[in-house]
Amino acid sequence: MRNALPRHKPLVQPPATRRGNFGEVIQDYDFQDAMDEADRCISCENARCEFACPLHNHIPRWIGELKRGNLAEAYRIIRETSPMPEICSRLCPQERLCEGACAMGIRYEAIAIGQLERFVSRHGSKLVQLKAESPKVLSNHLKKKAAAVGSGPASFAFAHTLAKQGHSVTVFERWPRLGGVLRWIPHFKLPTELLESHIEALKRLGVAFKTGVEIHSVHELLKNGHDAVFLGVGASRPSVPKIPGVTLGGILNSTDFLVRVYYDPVALPNGWQSITDLHGTRVAVLGGGDSAMDCLRTAVRLGASEVTCFYRRDEANMPGSKKEVKAAKEEGVRMQFLAAPTVFLSRDGQTVSQVECIRMELGPPDASGRRSPVSIEGSNFTTEVDLVVLSFGYEVEPMLADRERLMPPPKGIVKINPATGATPIPGVFAGGDCVTGPNLVCTAARAGIVAAQGALGYFAGEPWEILCNTKSSK
Ligand SMILES: Cc1cc2nc3c(=O)[nH]c(=O)nc-3n(C[C@H](O)[C@H](O)[C@H](O)COP(=O)(O)OP(=O)(O)OC[C@H]3O[C@@H](n4cnc5c(N)ncnc54)[C@H](O)[C@@H]3O)c2cc1C
User: Fold this and answer.
1) Does the chain have fewer CB atoms within 10 Å around its N or its C terminus?
2) What global pTM score does this model have?
3) Which of 441, 443, 446 to mutate to test the pocket of ligand 1 (most atoms within 8 A of CB)?
4) C-alpha to C-alpha distance for 46 and 446, rounded to whole angstroms
5) Which residues pair with 340 in a beta bridge?
6) Residue 178 CA: which ligand 1 atom is closest?
7) Cis upstream peptide for 60 (omega within 30°)
8) pLDDT tens readout for residues 324-346
């Protein structure tokens, strides 16, 4: 039985090599591996993988086309539901989504859906590019004007869906470069060229972009002739813990660190300086999620002499992907589990030189079901550091003027009808991390599509009370 064969593993840069470069860690399948892996798929009816995919990609259908060698058709089917397969195939935690639900995985190994999607996106897109996407032509009275605030995957998907239908969309981004978080996700996970070519494709479709423009009020956009506004402002403001010494020099939050490394150095926001080299630097990253792993693995590649992760629970209770933790350890990151920071110390009173931690043990489970860490009295220890990166999660940053109605405190999360993306303000839709809190690229993209479909209903005259349907709001 072909499907009982082990899954085809892609080539991966060995740890000793990848420590010294920012190239992609996981390599593409070659043609034969892709065909052999596709052959393992049993093309389930009512496939569980499809339900588990936030974008509901028609996985068995496109894998079926791939099996027959129809790469262009396989790509076309993926694009029916996914606006950015080249990005999602690299960034989705497939083991928790489609692959986690794969029926083959019950007895054998799950199909490598992400790796196959990446293969189809690379080769199929070249064939389909010949017939590049063109927008529907609408007469002037039907053509509407929409604005998207923020330029992350949620706004990209919103803009793509509306522009294809012939409407005019402008994306406003406060920072100098487009892409939201995609702009500072490590290049060993997402090469910048893929982001750039996605933006180029949106421009070819007629989407307009305005960078360096911070929007403070959706009402202004509505007054300025926009028929609909989409809020895709994300949740990328880092949470800062109240630890004594946290304002010392040499302590950065994860966004400030990653942006300084990956953002275009000539366009760094906030007057920040690039970080290009950490040779001789002892780096401590505090936190145990995926963005902590991104910071740790980035510090390794910049040549840091010691890279240590401090996390207050044990390895089994880490919040992020096991794959990322494994990769970080292979690359030489030192893990200090069950250790929570208590104070940052400085020899010169200005720059951090030590982090003091206390040992923890796991107590009974908390509301989330995870065992909560409890400190062990008198177990404090210090570690010498030159740079500390804080990675304690992210929050929504509410827009000033619309804070009370759209993004109420304390969390600033935008309230919508999840079926349409409609907020309580007529003409205003929202989606992505600003609605869910920190989430995933694929969930943000799906939210952008849902909101664009809501906007199409609005343009067609659907009443706001129905679109908004506050009863089903989150
Ligand atoms: C370090 C890191 C690594 C990650 N890795 C992964 C991964 O591997 N896989 C995965 O699926 N997800 C990952 N994520 C999560 C993923 O990036 C987010 O879920 C996704 O980007 C959210 O998309 P969004 O469109 O809602 O917002 P964002 O991508 O956050 O974009 C919001 C944009 O809005 C702009 N903005 C905010 N306010 C305004 C305003 N008032 N006016 C104008 N512009 C404004 C911001 O500058 C930003 O560019 C990661 C997140 C981080 C932080």
Assistant:
1) N
2) 0.95
3) 441
4) 20
5) 358
6) 49
7) no
8) 999 999 999 999 999 999 999 99
User: Average pLDDT in the 45-54 region?
Assistant: 96
Distance 390 CA to ligand 1 centre (A): 18
Contact (CB, 8 A) for 316 and 307: no
How does residue 121 score in pLDDT terms, banded at 50, 70 and 90?
very high
* Residue corresponding to tokens 């019950």: 106
CA-closest residue to ligand 1 atom 14: 440
Q: Inform me whether the pLDDT recorded for 98 exceeds 90.
A: yes
Q: Where are the domains of the chain?
A: 2-129, 145-235+396-472, 238-393
pLDDT band at residue 472, thresholds of 50, 70 and 90?
Answer: very low
pLDDT of residue 288: 95
Q: Looking at residue 84, what is its pLDDT?
A: 97
Q: Which CATH class is domain 238-393?
A: alpha beta
Whether 145-235+396-472 and 2-129 are alike in CATH topology: the answer is no
In tens, the pLDDT along 392-447 reads 999 888 776 777 778 887 788 899 999 999 999 999 999 999 999 999 999 999 99
Q: Which SS3 state, helix, strand or coil, does residue 12 take? A: strand
**295 contact partners, CB below 8 Å, separation of at least 6:** 254, 257, 258, 285, 389, 391
H-type helices in 109-264, by residue range? 113-129, 153-164, 192-204, 218-223, 254-262
Whose Cα sits closest to atom 1 in ligand 1? 291
Q: What are phi and psi of 180, to 5 degrees?
A: 60, -140
pLDDT exceeds 70 at position 474: no
Kind of pairing, strands 394-395 and 237-238? Answer: antiparallel
CATH no., domain 2-129: 1.10.1060.10
Strand pairing category for 354-365 and 339-345: antiparallel
Report the C-alpha gap between 285 and 270 in whole angstroms: 23
What is the CATH topology of the domain spanning 145-235+396-472? Answer: FAD/NAD(P)-binding domain (3.50.50)
User: 134 alpha carbon to ligand 1 midpoint, in Å?
Assistant: 27
DSSP state of 357: E
CA distance 301 to 298: 5
**What pLDDT score was predicted for residue 320?**
80
Q: Identify the pLDDT of residue 146.
A: 98
Q: How far is the CA of 254 from the centre of ligand 1 (A)?
A: 13
Neighbours of 138 (CB within 10 A): 14
